Amino acid sequence: MKKLSIHALLHVPFEGLGCIENWINDNGHSLSFTQFYSSYQLPSADTIDWLIVMGGPMGIYDDNLYPWLSAEKEFIAEVISKNKTVIGICLGSQLIANVLGARVYTNKQKEIGWFDINKSHISKDLPIISDFETQFRVFHWHGDTFDLPTSSTLLFSSAVCINQAFLYNDKVLGLQFHFEVTKDSLLQMIENGQSELIENDTIQTAETIVAQSIYIASNNKKMVEILNYLSR
User: Fold this and answer.
1) How far apart are CA 82 and CA 78, in angstroms?
2) For 50, 103, 104, 117, which has the most beta carbons within 10 A of its beta carbon?
3) How far is CA 142 from CA 37, 58, 90, 112, 171, in A?
4) Strand, helix or coil for residue 178
């Protein structure tokens, strides 16, 4: 496996790379960060092989509150244009969808907790997810959604969010949900997002979320399979 230079964009201190960082370290890849919640500097797009764009509670159109969003979108677009591998998770997937020309907007319901997703018919034989079950449970924490970017392939849907994941050009992946979540990162998200955990059909309580931590291992395994595929 080629040793990769991987750069991650972090929006809040409590949404890190989770099991992705373990995979990076286990395989001897280099990792650098831009932390937008601190003083930050974006690297040259030519110096990295992969870009990973993580989540956060802000929306992609909140440039007036987070002026760095404009620079971030330009950087993501540049990295994609240079045919690099890009992975976006939650907010990251929405940012990628936006720079690819798709509309991002508030979904009809928030989806927070462990809920099933379904593999799309068109993607069932794609090598990146060919070994995945048709339906399985993943961890969600999102209120916005996006239209499918032009020339991308829909990978997964859930009952309340049609566009849960997409693949563009076999190198750009957007995931609304959190394959990467670990026990520690799950607790950090709960601690920092308590105000959103108002229980209804699509939002679980903190206790219910923690009780379903048994799904973390299978989610992490799928994340690793995707990372291995993209690094082939």
Assistant:
1) 6
2) 117
3) 20, 10, 7, 6, 23
4) coil
pLDDT in tens, 143-172: 999 999 999 999 999 999 999 999 999 999
- Give the number of C-alpha atoms closer than 13 A to the C-alpha of residue 75, restricted to the C-beta side: 22
- Which residue has better confidence, 1 or 68? 68
Q: In the chain, what is the straight-line distance between the N-terminal and C-terminal CA atoms, in Å?
A: 7
Going by pLDDT thresholds of 50, 70 and 90, the confidence category of residue 1 is: confident
CB neighbours of 45 closer than 8 A, spacing ≥ 6? 75, 78, 79, 82, 84
Give yes or no for a contact between 118 and 135, defined as CB atoms under 8 angstroms apart: yes
* Residue 124 clears pLDDT 90, i.e. is over it: no
* Number of Cβ within a 10 Å radius of residue 85: 21
**Structure confidence at residue 228 (pLDDT):** 98
**CA–CA distances in Å: residue 3 to residues 10, 25, 29, 134, 231:** 22, 11, 5, 32, 9
Instruction: Output the domain CATH number for residue 47.
Output: 3.40.50.880
Predicted local confidence at residue 106, as pLDDT: 97
Tokens of 128: 């990146």
Domain extent at residue 184: 5-230
3-state DSSP call for residue 163?
coil
Report how many domains make up the chain.
Answer: 1
